[in-house]
Amino acid sequence: MNILLEKAVALPIPERIKLVEDIWDSIAADPWALELTPEQTAELERRIEHSRLNPEDAIPWETVKAEALARK
Q1: How far apart are CA 67 and CA 64, in angstroms?
Q2: What is the phi/psi pair of residue 41, to 5°?
Q3: Distance (Å, rounded) from C-alpha 39 to C-alpha 51?
């Protein structure tokens, strides 16, 4: 285990959670820093094309959100 990980694991859980959130926020702040693999790019292009050709397949956000919240 590297020294940074050892120090992180030694933190109390609330501080570890905050650290993970801060790390994630730093990644999300620059979403273009990570390049997609060719497979990911192909899948994204396939989904975009499917959506373009089949707009009736789309589910409104309000429906998706309501169903997700109903599962709680």
Answers
A1: 5
A2: -60, -45
A3: 18
Query: Cα 52–27–24 angle (5° rounding)?
Result: 105
Instruction: Kindly report the backbone phi and psi dihedral angles of residue 52, in degrees, each rounded to the nearest multiple of 5, phi listed first.
Output: -65, -40
Give one word for 60, left, alpha or beta, with left for phi > 0 and alpha for psi -120 to 50.
beta
Report how far residue 42's alpha carbon sits from residue 31's, in angstroms, rounded to the nearest whole number: 18
The tokens for 63 are 């429906």
Two structure tokens written together for 41: 């790019």
What digits encode the pLDDT tens for the residues 16-57? Answer: 999 999 999 999 998 888 899 999 999 999 999 999 999 999
